[in-house]
Each structure stands twice: as structure tokens, then as C-alpha cells.
Amino acid sequence: MKTLLKYYWLVGLITILIWIFVGARLGFEALVLCIILTLLEITFSADNAVVNSRVLATLSRFWRILFLTVGILLAVFVVRFILPIVIVMAGVGMSFVETFDLAIHHPEAYKIELDKAAPTINAFGAMFLLMVSFGFFINKAKQISWIKIIENPLINIARKVSFFGLWLGFIVLILTVISVPSEISGQVGTAMLAAIALYSGLHFVNSLMEKHESRSGSAQKVGFAAFLSFMYLQILDASFSLDGVIGAFALTDNIIIIMAGLGAGALWVREFTVYMVDTNALVRYKYLEHGAHWAIFVLGLIMLLKINSIELPEIIVGLVGLVFVAAALYSSRQAHNRQLHQV
Questions:
Q1: In this predicted model, what pLDDT tens digit does every residue of 282-297 receive, in sequence order?
Q2: Contact 135/165 with Cβ under 8 angstroms?
Q3: Among 166, 172, 230, 287, which residue's Cβ finds the most Cβ atoms within 10 Å?
Q4: Residue 182 burial (C-beta neighbours within 10 Å; 0-12, 13-18, 19+)
């Protein structure tokens, strides 16, 4: 209990203050909606925290502090507020100030324009998340498998076919562009190509930096390599969260309530990420990362379905991550218990 309080007392206090502010300024109904959005963000992002913790574990305490400070500002204000405004701005041809005014004072009209941009948002997010899952499962250096009947063949393919994950990404892109309505095929294809390019560029440069760090004998990333990993975490967060911003409009069209609710949830997710790093959770639960990446893969597929106007209930989308993470935790504990009995 003391350990949990050590990590979560501050984020809990900030969350309560956010809720009080929303309730005092906008009323009881707004408070209830803000609480719901906070809980939804925490529930939907459990898998995000697991994947983040793997990257954060390679960074020094300095970068972890930035993750919880500067990173939070980016997550709350840039990803959940500014970026959607920029996307709408590009789509409608308005200035940033005009689009900002639309979001604050005319949220119904802003929601309509944001819905128009949904195919682009979902296409980018889906492709980036799929590339993250491909990069994890289609990896010739991968040593541990969870769902062996699927994961082991993927490892073998990776050892025989170079850049198979990248080729698979292009296949998904082509099939998606063919399947969507012709009027949005161009923007969908461009968004997916941008996601592949961004992921591949980050992965390539990061690999070069990791080789350099391994030769220098450094246990943790520093300098530009650390900066790249930090930015990768922000992009991954954006891929998870942009779809949530659109979905939040199903509950309310008030951008302040949305930003406050999702922002409070983001605080918990980031603190949970740090908690997992400090408690060495990925080592103690060896299949946890696998479960998170399976959840990411399924979430990417769900976002692809949305491009074709196939909407699954939000409760199902949220449960996907929890089910995979919970199953991976259970499998990890079972495997650990079997090892103890064999000793």
C-alpha cells in the first residue's frame, strides 16, 4: 500500500483538483462526464503503458522526469487538443485561430469537421500501431513466445525474409486503399504511408544509436538516442489517443471536458508506466509485453474497420487491451510457478 501511495498520491491529487475545477466551472453533469472520460482513458491505455515501459526502461532518470513533465504537457495539450485542431484546420482551410475559436465556442461544428478528418486520423493511428506490433512479433532476435503457434512462425519468417514487417505494412496499406470509398482513398493512403515512413525512420535511426551505445558500453540511452526514444513515446501515445479524442465526442462536445478528462487519464497511464519500470514488471511477468502488443495489433485492426464505417462498441474496444494484458499476466504467473516447482 505504501508503494502505491508513493507513486500515485500526486497524480491522484491532481486528478481530484481537475475534477473539482470542471465541476465548479461547468456543473455536476460536466464533472460526471469528466470522471467517465478519465476512467475510459485509463482502461483503454493499459496496453499503451506496458509498451511505454519497455522503452522508458532504456532511458535515464532525467528522461523519465521529462516523460512525466514535458511529456504530459505534450500528451494533454498537443496530442489531445492542438493536434486535432491542426488536422481540422488543414481539412477546412481555416487559420489556426479560427479553428481554435470553432473548437471553444462552436463545439458542434468542430465535431462535424473532426469527424470528417476521422479517416485520416484512424488510418495513421492504425498503421503506426500495426507497425509497432509487426516490429515486436516479426523479429529474428525475439527469444520468448507467448502464443507459440502464431509467434514462432513469425520469428522464423523474420529470419528468412528481410524487412518482412515492412512489406506486410505495405500490403495492409494497399488492401486498405482498395477497400475504402474512392473519395477518401487518397487521404487514407497518404496517412498510412506517413505512418510507415515515420515508424521506419525512427526505428532505423534508433537501431543505429543502440549499436553505438552498445559499443560505448553505456547501459542507458543518452543524447540524441534518448531524444528519439522520448519522441517515439509521444508518437505512440498520439496513435493511441487521437482515436479516443474522436470517440470522446460521443459523450460530450465540450473540448474543455474532453481535454480535462483524457488529460487526467493520461497522468495515470504515465505514472503507471514509471511504476512498471521501477518495479521491473516486464522481467517478473515475461509475457506481459506480448499481451500488450497483441492488444495493439487488434486495436490497429479495429481502427482500420472504422475507416470503412464499421464501428464496434466502445466497451469492446476498451476490453480488448484489458483482456490481453490480464491473460498475459496470468500466463506469466503460471510459467513462474512451474519454474519454482521444477527447481
A1: 778 889 889 989 988 9
A2: yes
A3: 287
A4: exposed
Task: Count the Cβ atoms, other than its own, within 10 Å of residue 89.
Answer: 20
pLDDT at 271: 87
Answer whether residue 200 shows pLDDT above 60. yes
Q: Give this prediction's pTM.
A: 0.83
Phi, psi values for residue 43, rounded to 5°: -65, -45
The pLDDT of 122-143, averaged and rounded, is 91
Instruction: Measure the CA–CA gap between 44 and 247, rounded to whole angstroms.
Output: 12
For 104, 111, 113, 133, 244, the CA distances from 117, given in Å and listed in that order, are 18, 10, 7, 25, 14
C-alpha distances (whole Å) from 85 to each of 73, 119, 211, 253 are 16, 15, 38, 14
Q: How do the domains of the chain map onto residue ranges? A: 2-342
Taking the C-alpha atoms of residue 262 and residue 195, their distance in angstroms, rounded to an integer, is 23
User: Which cell numbers in the block locate residue 305?
Assistant: 474497420
d(CA 87, CA 201): 22
294-322 burial code (b ≥16 CB/10 A, e <16) = bbbbbbbebbbebbeeeeeebeebbebbe
Angle between helices 107-116 and 96-105 (to 10 degrees): 120
336, amino acid identity? H
Q: What is the mean pLDDT of the chain?
A: 85
Q: pLDDT higher for 211 or 175?
A: 175
According to DSSP, residue 59 is labeled: B
Q: Is 185 helix (H, G, I), strand (E, B) or coil?
A: helix
Helix, strand, or coil (residue 180):
coil
Is 158:139 a contact under the CB 8 Å cutoff?
A: yes
